Amino acid sequence: MRPVRPILKRRRLPRAERRLSTSGIDVLITTYGVLRRDLGKFKNREWSLVVVDEAQNIKNPGSEQTRAVKSLPAKVRLAVSGTPVENRLTELWSIFDFINRGYLGSLRTLTVASPCP
């Protein structure tokens, strides 16, 4: 018995030739850098699912990269990380703000309620 595997068509284009076309695709994989540079192209549609791997990359709520990721219109958001929260509760807040905006309140409320030592 052979396992059933989906057929994924893939191709990689040089940056100058790159055009984001989302018609007829089920999965789109990109990097934080490409997302940040080409954000306008990614925001032109609502995504069914946005999965962020290495979610510690969005732990700084004020960074351009974090703001870009959080601005993606999506029905469902998922954050995956093997890295523990390292320094501050704001890092955890930022990741939760991506997956479930407002669940932990505002950043201001968190920093007033839980000041850093």
Task: Tell me about this structure.
With 117 residues, the protein is of the alpha+beta class. It has a domain of 70 residues. Helices cover 30% and strands 12% of the residues. It has 5 helices and 2 strands; from the N terminus they run H-H-E-H-E-H-H. Strands 1-2 form a two-stranded parallel sheet. The longest helix is centred in the last third of the chain and has 11 residues. The chain is globular. It starts with 31 loop residues before the first helix and ends with a helix. The model has no long low-confidence stretch (mean pLDDT 84).
Query: Can you count the helices?
Result: 5
Q: Which structural class do the helices and strands define? A: alpha+beta
For the biggest sheet, the summary is: 2 strands, parallel
Overall geometry: globular
Helix content: 25-40%
Radius of gyration: 17 Å
The residue ranges in which pLDDT falls below 50 over 5 or more consecutive positions are: none
Question: Termini separation (Å)?
Answer: 60 Å
Overall number of strands:
2
- Oligomer class: single chain
Strand content: 5-15%
SSE order, as H and E?
HHEHEHH
Q: Kindly state the mean pLDDT as a whole number? A: 84
Query: If strands are numbered along the chain, what order do they take across the biggest sheet?
Result: 1-2
